[in-house]
Automatic annotation (TrEMBL):
It holds the Pfam family Ala_racemase_N. GO terms for molecular function: alanine racemase activity; pyridoxal phosphate binding. It comes from the Bacteria. Residues 7-225 form the Alanine racemase N-terminal domain. GO terms for cellular component: cytosol. It comes from Luteibaculum oceani. PANTHER family: ALANINE RACEMASE (PTHR30511), LYSINE RACEMASE (PTHR30511:SF3). Its cofactor is pyridoxal 5'-phosphate. This is Alanine/ornithine racemase family PLP-dependent enzyme. Keywords: Isomerase, Pyridoxal phosphate. SUPFAM superfamilies: PLP-binding barrel.
Amino acid sequence: MAYVTLDSKKLEENYKFLDQKFKERNISWAPVTKLLCGNTLLMKEVLKHKPKEVCDARLSNLVLVKELDPSIETVYIKPPAKEIIEDVVRYADASLNSSYTTIKEISKEAKKQGKTHHIIIMIELGDLREGIMGERLLDFYSKVFELPHIKVTGLGANLNCLYGVMPSEDKLIQLSLYKQLLEAKFNVEIPWVTGGTSVVMPLLMNNRLPKGINHFRVGETLYFGADLVGGTTFEGMHNDVFKLYAQVIEITEKPKVPIGNMEANPSGETYEIDESEYGLTAERMILDVGLLDLSTDFVKPVEKGLTISGASSDMLVIELGDEAKKYKVGDFVEFEMKYMGALRLFNSDYIEKRVI
């Protein structure tokens, strides 16, 4: 049976690495836990490092955080849908928002629950996902400022999430200036400018982060040590906190070219035959994991000489090259993965999760 592991020691070292980098610059930060898909075993591994706050885009995951440690502040990191506002106020201490209509409903619900809900106003910086346009900010804030049981504690932005627009010093300075504008105009204090995400980490590491950015929300770099600009791993961090192990259920030498009339497969893919491979054979393994659980674009065999040939809903086919060691039925093949690969695997109920 296929399973995924979390290496507790490597996660700890990644966490401490980031925590030290942020402390050196007097920056607050929160781990983003949506990758863990609400798995209690894995969530405990993050929470044992005692983060002050945790960010997640799934409300049920924040419910779990509160159950495991009520003292941790929880942040819902996407604009809430109307139907879940009651629970957002109940289980999230803060939420990211870009709609006055939604914030008004949050205000009403917070009054019912006798709470003050913290709001981070999201501002559009060019990637065209959530966020109000900068020229509307003063009018937007003036209306939010009047709502009871609401406290604006930060301004935020997301980049690179939709169209791949990269962060820059100019964009982040712009975000910081919005905070200064609001504070001067309305005589208020807004503690946080949460412009930092994993894709902003290279600016911080290269000492190019504008001073006004004082809060980060970090997922991918925490779990994968990822430099999302350079496409590498930050020195001193681990990229293999998570690994996939899939079991061999068949090994057979087969033709390299399919035999018969060909159309699109169930995934809508069409296979182009390489005529130079006619008459050739290769040893192929079938593993007990498939497209229901993973995306082949985001996982890679650790051992040299193994190539992913394709996958169906429940099985993965691997071709063994000359460099590959000898496998037998029942052996496990080890895979490294990228963020989106891990996300699919953790979201699958069919894949066992283990901590090592």
